[in-house]
Amino acid sequence: MQRLFSLFAPLLTAALAAAALGGCDSKPRAADRAPDRPALVSIIHFAPQSRAREFTAAIRPRIESDLGFRVAGKVVRRLVEVGQRVKAGAILAALDDADLKLQKEQADAEYAASNVVQMQTTADETRAARLKQQGWTAQAALDRAHAAAQEARSRNQRAARAVELARNSLDYAVLRADADGVVTQTSIEPGQVVAAGAPAVRIARDGEMEAAVALPESYANAAGEGEARLFLWSRPDKTYRAKLRELSPSADPATRNFAARFSILDPDPAISLGMSATLVIAGRSETPAIGVPLSALFNQGEGAGLWRVDAEGGLSLIPVSVLRYEADRAIVSGPLEEGDKYVVLGVQKLDPAQRVRVIVQN
């Protein structure tokens, strides 16, 4: 037995050594055959970035006026309702005019009395002038007659103006529309006592209509620099061009928004007062930049970067500047070229020493 072992021992040793050498040679060949890490990549395309903002708008008239009585009194009639169309001169409401009629009668009576006094003093002046010419009276008497006649004429003129004021006040007891339009609000009811000038009926005039919006502080100054388009909620397929006409100089104390009015440049009959709409404002074109998915950004505290892939699958981390973040992407700029490939997913697992197998994102 010992003789057999001594005979086969050299052969067994040689076999084990060959197996060991074969195992050492197989490891580098397996590494050489290992496939590269697959990487989903996208191609860089530069484009001018035009940031669009959307705001909820309401269709409002260009001119909307609060009409009120020019005299105080008690409301006896209101002849219009909200939504009613009115013509210029139509009666909207009326006050109790009993006292105003009495004032008119009083002014008429005073005017009639002043006419009598004026006629008497004018006759006295004429007579005094004739007697002075004939030498039968003194200059002082003529002067007194002239002064009395002048005073009577002034009183008569004042009484005539009082009649006109009383007539106007009586006419002001009836509130009339000053233009064609639609009643959008009423603030009075029969039996209510109103002060002169208090808002009674609001009328939206026919004519130009606008989109009223509230703009945030960060966007108010740039609202007029971009192209504005309007979409009605009832007709989202129709687009209307708009232009900033008015921007409030101060913000609302509660919301801190700025009220703005945009004129509708190409209105049609489909637009009605009170409709809801969306106003889209496209900002000015900026420096060409790249829109990349948020998952493509790699940042370890030294700034954002993108993994660029070369033609052989090599990786290089390119630092970029983030211009702004949007809902699902970031707008960046950096030392990249049109057509470069960058990794979209799994960027936190990559290393510059790795090589990747490119899978282009559709």
UniProtKB/TrEMBL annotation:
A Pfam family the protein falls into: BSH_RND
The keyword Magnesium appears for this protein: no
GO CC annotation: efflux pump complex
Keywords, alphabetical: Coiled coil, Signal
GO molecular function: efflux transmembrane transporter activity
CusB-like beta-barrel domain segment(s): 213-283
Annotated ranges, domain Multidrug resistance protein MdtA-like barrel-sandwich hybrid: 67-200
Gene3D superfamilies: 2.40.30.170, 2.40.420.20, 2.40.50.100, Helix hairpin bin
Family annotation (InterPro entries): Beta-barrel_RND_2 (IPR058792), MdtA-like_BSH (IPR058625), RND_pump_MFP (IPR006143)
Signal peptide: 1-19
Coiled-coil ranges per UniProt: 142-169
Transmembrane region(s): none
SUPFAM superfamilies for this protein: HlyD-like secretion proteins
Annotated PANTHER family: MULTIDRUG RESISTANCE PROTEIN MDTA, RESISTANCE-NODULATION-CELL DIVISION (RND) EFFLUX MEMBRANE FUSION PROTEIN-RELATED
Entry similarity comment: Belongs to the membrane fusion protein (MFP) (TC 8.A.1) family.
Name of the featured protein: Efflux RND transporter periplasmic adaptor subunit
Lineage, broadest ranks: Bacteria, Pseudomonadati, Pseudomonadota, Alphaproteobacteria, Hyphomicrobiales
